[in-house]
Amino acid sequence: MYIEGRNAVSEALRAHMPLQKIFLAQGVKPDKALDDIKRRANRAQVPLTSVPKRDLDKLSERGAHQGIMAATAPFKFTPIEQVLRTTEGMSDALIIVLDHITDPGNLGAIVRSAEVIGASAVVIPKRRMAAITPAAWKAAAGAFAHVALCQETNVVRSLQKLQEGGFWVAGASERAKQDVWHAPLDGKIALVMGSEGEGLARLTQERCDFLVKLPQQGKVGSLNVAQATTAISYEWLRRIMNKNVD
Asked: What angle do CA 197, 203, 209 make, to 5 degrees?
């Protein structure tokens, strides 16, 4: 993947996103922004290469590279089968499944919460899903390096695999009859969170063993998907910790 533009490359370096190389257009005029990028790249040991502007024009998807682009290191996804082997025999485990989340900031925030809570993995689909951009990397605050991220072709098929591996699939939905305080949110749970605009897809919802919602007293709309994921996941963690104390 390529990152283009001075702000985007600068943010990637600030977020410590792994970059393979930074390309600078020949003849680009130096300024404070470029000087800062060069300093950060040097500290991060990311090589800078001078190339003809036409090379960047060919690589650019948006045509707004501003004379600078960066190549990101390939992200190493974890096969879901490996996660299932890791969780086999465990009495308690949480896997968060994202049903086409489109905002990179939400993706990063969810991965960060998953790491803090101790989730075994986050599962994302290959298509119609937010990419691991500098915004996602920044929101995750380094959590991408510590949480298994599985990229699957089909969300419904992934849920079936998790069910076969001993997980109960809980889908988050405002239309659920049970709130998180009364739903069976303990043990081995695969928590499915729907997209920002549409929520859970119909086939995804039909695959869930049960649906859950957050209780609400206020008049404002529900929490965004990243906040809701954190709140529901902490209810799972609370029960696990209470069980271990008992």
From this structure: 105
For residue 246, what pLDDT is reported? 59
How many CB atoms within 10 Å of residue 174?
Answer: 13
Q: What is the mean pLDDT of residues 161-181?
A: 94
Sorted by sequence, the CB contacts under 8 Å of residue 164 that are 6+ apart come out as none
In the numeric block, which tokens belong to residue 101? 């989340």
Instruction: List, edge to edge, every strand of the sheet that includes 19-25.
Output: 2-4, 68-72, 19-25, 48-51
In the chain, % of residues over pLDDT 90: 65
Helices and strands in the chain, H and E counts: 9, 11
Phi, psi (5° rounding) for residue 123?
-110, 130
Q: How far is CA 125 from the centre of its chain?
A: 11
Using DSSP bridges, classify how beta strands 188-194 and 48-51 pair: parallel, antiparallel or unpaired. Answer: unpaired
What is the torsional sign of CA 115, 158, 108, 221?
Answer: negative
Q: In 10 A of CB 53, how many CB atoms? A: 14
32-43 helix and 6-14 helix, angle to the nearest 10 degrees: 30
Instruction: Identify whether the C-beta of residue 118 lies closer than 8 Å to the C-beta of residue 237.
Output: yes
Environment class of residue 126 by beta-carbon count within 10 Å: exposed (0-12), middle (13-18) or buried (19+)? exposed
Q: Does residue 189 contact residue 164 with C-beta atoms inside 8 Å? A: no
Beta bridge partners of 48: 22
pLDDT value, residue 221:
67
